[in-house]
Each structure stands twice: as structure tokens, then as C-alpha cells.
């Protein structure tokens, strides 16, 4: 299996100028759209009963994400949506290379009108206009400094999200990759999947590192591909199986990475 670092080609002066312009345009779109979308989601969270509130939030998130990718000239290809269903909950375990990964996955899941929740870090819950989105979509914020508290917060909401047929997205590496390689996966997604007896759907995002790596300040136009792998059932698994599930999921993601690199 290949673990080569994705190649980031140098940009010409013209390409740089276009990328900067598109990034500025996306920034101009970002603030007012988050404010407007956050307000609508806040209202939905107060007026609509579950799971309708999360359906509204998911539709807004997917539309917003698709629009953002369009502004940045990042075409999206999606494979494997047949492995996800609006009638069955799943835990989606994805690699994480870029700030663009959340909108990429939201846009991808939106193509099948799937309800979604993203497990987010605690700092997002402090942002005024993001707080409503975070809480209405049923995302348990993670305090990375207190792993026991983070695990308890996720587990407290996991059953509810599963009952509402949500697709709960974990960026299983825990943080963005420095070099585009798939490192060791955190165990949080496996604990949640086993606790709720929910299938894991491995996901691989190809191209987001090239589009906007961890230390990039502007996004580079280019095609991004998302692949959702076959479901990994957790029925009958216990906490003793967490490590095996983590290893199996990482292996599946590495296989999808290898397939992407040979295309």
C-alpha cells in the first residue's frame, strides 16, 4: 500500500492570482453566509422538533458547502454513496488533510440528501454563529485537553444520533495531516460505533491536501474526489474489539487511497 505524500505542484503567477481572487471571493461569501445560515439553523433548532431540525440543518450545510466549493473552482466527484442510507445510521470515519474537508463531505452527503453530524472540536462551539449550527446538528464538541470528558460527551449523544438515522462524521486522525499521509487513527469513532452497534463507513478524500494543505492560506482550484467504502458492521462487537475495528477501518482507508493514486 502506498503512503506517498500527495504532490503539490508549484503555481504560476497567473494561477496564484486567480487562486487569491477566488479565496478572497470565498471569504466574502463565508462570513455573511455563515451568519445567515446560522440564524436559520438557530431558528429551526428552536421551532422544529427532532429530527426535522437536523434535516433542515443538513440541507443548509450541504447547499452552503456546494456553493463554497463552486466559488473556489473545486469540482467534486463522489463514489460509494450506495453504502450510505437515510434509513440507517452510520459512523463515517474519514481521513483529514484540509480545512476544506468538512464542506467537501457535507456537499458529498448532500447529494443523497443524507442527514449528517460532524464531531467538532470545542472551539467551534464558542463561535457565536457556529454555535447554533454545532448544537442543532447534534454535534458533541470535543475538548481535546480532556479526552475522558470528550468521550463521555460523544457517548451521551451517540444513541440519539443513531436513533435519528444520522450519519455522524469523524475525522478519525483527530487533526489535519501535516504531509497528506494517513497516520494513526483515534479510537473515538470505534467506541461510538460499537456502543450504538452502528456500522462504520470508511471514507477517503483525495485532493484536498493539494487544494489547501494545513499551512496554506489560499485554496487552489482542482478536482477533489470522495470515496465511501463498504459498511463495516459492528453487530455483536464489544469494547474489546475497538482496536481491531480501528485497524480494519484504517486498512480500508489505505486501500481507497491506493486506488485513488492508481487512477
Number of helices: 8
The radius of gyration is 18 Å
Q: What is the average of the pLDDT values?
A: 83
CATH superfamily: Glycerol-3-phosphate (1)-acyltransferase
Number of domain modules: 1
Regarding quaternary structure, how should these chains be classified? single chain
What string, H for helix and E for strand, traces the elements in order? HHEEHEHHEHEHEH
CATH domain class name: Alpha Beta
Q: How much strand content do the residues show? A: 5-15%
Q: Provide the CATH architecture.
A: 3-Layer(aba) Sandwich
Query: Order of strands across the biggest sheet?
Result: 1-6-5-2-4-3
What name does CATH use for the topology? Glycerol-3-phosphate (1)-acyltransferase
Termini separation (Å)?
14 Å
Shape: globular
Structural category is alpha/beta
Question: What's the total number of strands?
Answer: 6
Give a structural overview:
The chain is of the alpha/beta class and 263 residues long. The protein has one domain (13-262): Glycerol-3-phosphate (1)-acyltransferase. It is built from 8 helices and 6 strands; from the N terminus they run ααββαβααβαβαβα. It has a 6-stranded mixed sheet with strand order 1-6-5-2-4-3, with helices on both faces. Helix 1 (13-47) crosses helix 4, helix 2 crosses helix 3 and helix 6 (188-196) packs across helix 8 (242-262). The chain is globular and about 55 Å long.
Structural descriptors:
263 residues; alpha/beta; Glycerol-3-phosphate (1)-acyltransferase; 8 helices; 6 strands
Brief digest:
This protein has 263 residues and is an alpha/beta fold. 48% of the residues lie in helices and 11% in strands. It is globular and about 55 Å long.
Amino acid at each position: 500500500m502506498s503512503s506517498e505524500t500527495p504532490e503539490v505542484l508549484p503555481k504560476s503567477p497567473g494561477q496564484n492570482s486567480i487562486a487569491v481572487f477566488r479565496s478572497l471571493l470565498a471569504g466574502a461569501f463565508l462570513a455573511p453566509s455563515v451568519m445567515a445560515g446560522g440564524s436559520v439553523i438557530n431558528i429551526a433548532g428552536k421551532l422544529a422538533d427532532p429530527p426535522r431540525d437536523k434535516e433542515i440543518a443538513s440541507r443548509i450545510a450541504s447547499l452552503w458547502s456546494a456553493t463554497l466549493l463552486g466559488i473556489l473552482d473545486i469540482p467534486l466527484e463522489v463514489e460509494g454513496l450506495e453504502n450510505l442510507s437515510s434509513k440507517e445510521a452510520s459512523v463515517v470515519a474519514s481521513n483529514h488533510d484540509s480545512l476544506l474537508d468538512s464542506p467537501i463531505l457535507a456537499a458529498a452527503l448532500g447529494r443523497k440528501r443524507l442527514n449528517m453530524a460532524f464531531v467538532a472540536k470545542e472551539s467551534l462551539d464558542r463561535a457565536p454563529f457556529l454555535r447554533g449550527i454545532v448544537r442543532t446538528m447534534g454535534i458533541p464538541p470535543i475538548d481535546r485537553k480532556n479526552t475522558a470528558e470528550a468521550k463521555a460527551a460523544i457517548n451521551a449523544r451517540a444513541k440519539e444520533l443513531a436513533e435519528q438515522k444520522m450519519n455522524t462524521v469523524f475525522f478519525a486522525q483527530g487533526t489535519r495531516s501535516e504531509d497528506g499521509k494517513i497516520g494513526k487513527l483515534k479510537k473515538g469513532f470505534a467506541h461510538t460505533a460499537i456502543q450504538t452497534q452502528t456500522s462504520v463507513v470508511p471514507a477517503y478524500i483525495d485532493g484536498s491536501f493539494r487544494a489547501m494543505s494545513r499551512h496554506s492560506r489560499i485554496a487552489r482550484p482542482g478536482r477533489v474526489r470522495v470515496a465511501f467504502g463498504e459498511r463495516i458492521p459492528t453487530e455483536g462487537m464489544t469494547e474489546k474489539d475497538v482496536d481491531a475495528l480501528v485497524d480494519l477501518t484504517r486498512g480500508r482507508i489505505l486501500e481507497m487511497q491506493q486506488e485513488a493514486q492508481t487512477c
